[in-house]
Design brief:
The chain is an alpha+beta fold. The protein contains two helices and eight strands. The longest helix has 19 residues.
Amino acid sequence: MYEVFEHTADLGLHVEAPTLEGLFAEAGRALFSVIVEELDAVEPRTTREVRLEGPSEDYLLFDWLTELLYLFEREHLLFARFEVRRDGDRLIGRASGEGVDPERHHLTHEVKAITYHGLFVEGGPAGFAAEVILDI
């Protein structure tokens, strides 16, 4: 589950999931829900694998979202489906989607960057939660 909230001149994402892997997958969906109007219209025609390593879940989430944003900017790919696996300090993620089709995809926000401001990932008995602010 995710929700987008206003944050001064930027947008924030609040994400919750029962598992840490699910949290990262849902954060990917949250990011692209800000970029494209109908996320469910994005079809899984291509997949990119992202491998990251980091000292904490906070930094891994930052790097995960930054890499997805980089793939969008460099390859003009929209992603809507994610599979994430943790192996110690490493994260292995697969993002599936397709290239931007101006006739089918209405882009709504330009996300300039993922920020460290207010970034957190926390776990508890009910699952995991995270917040991240997007520079738009």
